[in-house]
């Protein structure tokens, strides 16, 4: 019995290791290719070790392209969108969870319905709205439509409903208003949900592409995702440009990885607390 269990465990570990390699191999290949020459990247596309190690792709990115401008634009948009989503999703979630008003169920149903609509369906209407309001090709047109997210409202509403209303009763007796109860009492208790919204909003806005294509054509408003897409289509020169494109993609992963490592401990603490509770 022990021998059969051991054989099964070995097979299971072999399968898990194989799946892990399949998952991580494309990432390692991207890192390796970014340090190859263009010719080697085409000749040995699956090699994980560059025969001629070079940082030419990164030098071209920072010297001969608008990559620094794209990076700055992405930082500006991502920070603004993340702050906006956390604030507005929290306010909307609290209103739907705690404030009784006529049509509250209908509003929440519409929000759930929006989550079911594919984003590509909304691209043309979004362009028409931006053009009608005169904010096409502006920072406002790039940032404002992303500052509210239906999934964020859904998460915050459900979390606020899990907080006992008795917590707010004491503050209400002391004369606290609705916004003060939200800001000073309920929102700090919703830290796990706020962290979740922050991570999802940062990652989503950092990797957003379709909205930026629809919202702007100005060269000085190009973000990283749009710029890398232009590189893939041969923006700087002819040919595949695999090292250049994958080098840009590698740099794009750094801010998201940093955010994960910053919040990793808090996420783990939240999970531990939930288990102990």
Characterise the protein shown here:
The protein has 2 domains: 7-53, no CATH class; 66-274, MetI-like fold (Orthogonal Bundle). 73% of the residues lie in helices and 0% in strands. The chain has 14 helices and no strands. The longest helix is centred in the C-terminal third of the chain and has 35 residues, at 242-276.
Shape: globular
Our count of domains comes out at: 2
Question: What's the CATH architecture of the largest domain?
Answer: Orthogonal Bundle
Q: Determine the N-to-C terminus distance.
A: 37 Å
The first-level CATH class name of the largest domain: Mainly Alpha
Total DSSP helices: 14
- Report helical residue fraction: over 70%
How do the helices and strands follow one another from N- to C-terminus? HHHHHHHHHHHHHH
Overall mean confidence score, pLDDT: 86
Structural class comes to mainly alpha
**Name given to the CATH homologous superfamily of the largest domain:** MetI-like
Could you describe the largest sheet, including whether it forms a barrel? none
* Rg for CA atoms: 24 Å
Remind me, CATH topology of the largest domain? MetI-like fold
